[in-house]
Amino acid sequence: MFSKLLRALPLSVVLSLLAVKVYAQDDGVITTNELAYAIDNTFLLIAAVLVLFMQAGFAMVEAGFNSAKNAVNIMFKNIIDLGAGVLLFWLIGYSLMYGANEIIPGWLAFSGFGISDTPPEALGGNLNPQVDWLFQVAFAATAATIVSGAVAGRMKFSGYLIYSVFITAFIYPISGYWKWGGGWLDQMGFYDFAGSIVVHSVGGFAALAAVIVLGPRIGRFSEKGKNPFPPHSMALATLGVFILWIGWYGFNPGSQLAFSGAANTDVTMLVSVS
Question: Which of 149, 162, 147, 244 is nearest to 199 (CA)?
Answer without folding.
Answer: 147
